Amino acid sequence: MRKPTEDIKIFAERRKKVSSLISGHALIVAAHPELIRNHDVHFPYRQDSNLYYLTGFEEPESFLVLRPGLQPESVMFVRRKDAERETWDGFRYGPEGVEKEFKIDKCYPIDEMEKVLPQLLKEVDGIYYRLLKNKEADEKVLACLDRLRVSQGRTGYGLLPIHDADTLLGEMRLIKSEYELENQRTACEISAQAHLAAMKFTRPGVTERQIQGVLTHYFYMKGCAREGYGHIVATGNNATTLHYNFNDQVCESGQLLLIDSGGEYNYYTGDITRTFPVNGKFTKPQAEVYQAVLDVQKFLIDMVKPGIFFKDLHEIGASMLTEAMLELGLLTGRKEDLMAANQHRKYYPHGIGHWLGMDVHDAGLYFRKGEPRPIEENMCFTIEPGLYIPALDTSAAAEYRGIGVRIEDNIRVTSSGSEVMTSAVPKEIAELEQVIGKG
Known about the structure:
The chain has two domains: 7-172, Creatinase/prolidase N-terminal domain (Creatine Amidinohydrolase, Chain A, domain 1); 175-435, Creatine Amidinohydrolase (Alpha-Beta Complex). Helix content is 37%, strand content 17%.
């Protein structure tokens, strides 16, 4: 179990900011549930991003309760110390340890939650809580709310109103502090170097899973706690499956290889995609598709600055990719008509990117009250155009079938433009051909 560090002050500052936004209400945040297979095999545990964001605490079976202006203001429910269970499952802080090490005003054992929490909620007008993400936690919280309702007798009061905590905390997480950016950059830098190592390792005859092993090894050797998401290592036609994850095929000469992978460092993740030839040399059709995607990506990155709309990046990217489809002969007709009929989505079925941070598809609103929001300084997101031409698509020219290309970088919005936090990974055709297989 990782010991808390000087970061504890940062978590306390975040709790203070949340408290300033929810006067008269309480916030309840639940830990992520443990994943257990066959009753005895535990998967590696990863804390809920929101709970970690506000506490730095990484144990399961825990809840945070914030009550602005009331005493105690910060409360946690955590597992008791238990020597026997710690022998099997590892160290536990216990209530006293959490109060001391994580600077929480008051901690209670988790088994006392249904008795204590209703009392803590008597003085608030409503709660912020994320429903429908954790069934076990929902049942506990709703049982406490019902116990509070019953305790009030015939006063006419029902359950406390529940507001969505995801929106509240997502908006906080969307604009990164310098501390967050430091971790985000480190995650991106490690991820970039891992991709470079994978490129140098790649050659005909290696397997997708061996390449995955190179990525994973680099992540862990450089301080990542885990992968940020499941690796996509897709050779040949596999690259036309957006979420391909078998990663068990042999890489053959003449194929392209698409790698979508990122490491997670201090709960912040990189998310990079590169596509390159297994044998180190693009064929003419491969280069045509690849360069079309790269031109779109570079154009969109150059557009980024405060005040533009993320929605516009997607729409411009889709328009440019449709033009590329027409130039490659994948589609015929008038661009505007094809897009209106969503014909372009046959070869480009996803969005141009997503927020990036503690989760690979990070929290935060893309629209406010139905209107697209302008991007702001210190937002982080991906830009990832792609073209995917399945091997069985007989409407495409034979030389393009089985080609899947995506190019993805991680962007921070600066005061006047953007910082590409993953620029260490080559993506120009000439640069790639100099690196592939040179390990």
